Amino acid sequence: MAESPCLDGTFNCTYQNGPTLVPHVVPVFAVAVLAVALRMYSRSLIRQNRNASDVTVVIGLLFSAALTGMILYSPRIGVGRHVNDVPIPSIERLLISLFVGCILYAFAISIIKISILLLYRSLFPTPGINLATNIIGGLSIAWGIETALVGTFSCSPVRAFWDLSINKEDKKCIDTTTFFIANSAFHVVLDIAILAIPIRKVWPLKMTVQKKIVVSFMFLLGGFICIIGIIRLFFLATLKMDDVTWSLIDTYVWSSVETSVGVICACLPTLRPVFTKLFPKGGLETRIGTVLNTQRSHRAQERNSFVRLREESKGITVTREIELESGISDGKGKLSEEEVRDDMWRYKG
């Protein structure tokens, strides 16, 4: 291990940022728990039985809870402190938690992906959607298994991952940083593919424009997972192994946030019955519909006024239209369409 920045005086070794985990991680996880609870309540409102998508999102939430709990405990074993401030036994416990956290993260993310794909299959039961979800689902499962296996067997013997008493000559470890960067990049690509599946199916549906906007918006919120995955990838790529206890905290935060947001996004498309019950007359669909209807009304009113004006002031309108086309207007030059319209409004008054 290279010399720690803590040793050469670059950092203040007494400072710790572990307490910043709570305000960043806990609120997002609490919203994830609320989203799952509302999803189950939504099912009861429409008297629909729980399906495979509901079961998998609950399992994903449990893995997210385990990961979040482990991350919240990590400051007690050195995360958020510079490595020179952390005793060797604590570093070993930290490496054990990192070992377990890698497996929890892999299963949480892959199960949440499967839950979203199962939801798509139930909402859009078409051969094309079934084929797309089968392919992406298979890749998601393979990604989760691969991530868990590499995290587990990255060192030989396995305990060499955390046991610092084993000599370098007696152990062999792969470059996990490079692997997990490439692995996370592929994970983001899968998220983008999952995000693209439902959008092309929403707009051809026979529903009002405002409903299409609301449904598309709910699905597009899944884009937050892609953004968070990219942020996590950045911190993973910039992880400083010579002061890993300090720099690991950002990766931990975004790992927990990503799993929680994944659960939230998996639940959002199912919450419409709850929103309808809470906002029966003032929901988002109604507001969007009001805006669209107002715009249509204004366009229709303007068109009707223009027609009536042509009928009431036909001579003037015809003269102006001829002048507009020929560019002759009593020596004043070619009139614009706006000037013609302004004159017509004046004659109407």
TrEMBL record:
**Which keywords belong to this entry?**
Membrane, Transmembrane, Transmembrane helix
* Pfam families given in the database record: Fung_rhodopsin (PF20684)
- Give all residue intervals belonging to the Rhodopsin domain: 38-276
**How is this protein named in the record?**
Rhodopsin domain-containing protein
Q: How does it sit in the membrane?
A: Multi-pass membrane protein
Q: Where are the transmembrane segments?
A: 21-41, 53-74, 94-119, 174-197, 217-239
Superkingdom of this protein's organism: Eukaryota
Record bears the keyword Cytoplasm: no
Q: Where in the cell is it found?
A: Membrane
Q: What is the scientific name of the source organism?
A: Venustampulla echinocandica
Give the matching InterPro entries: Rhodopsin_dom_fungi (IPR049326), SAT4-like (IPR052337)
Stated family: Belongs to the SAT4 family.
Can you name a GO cellular component term? membrane
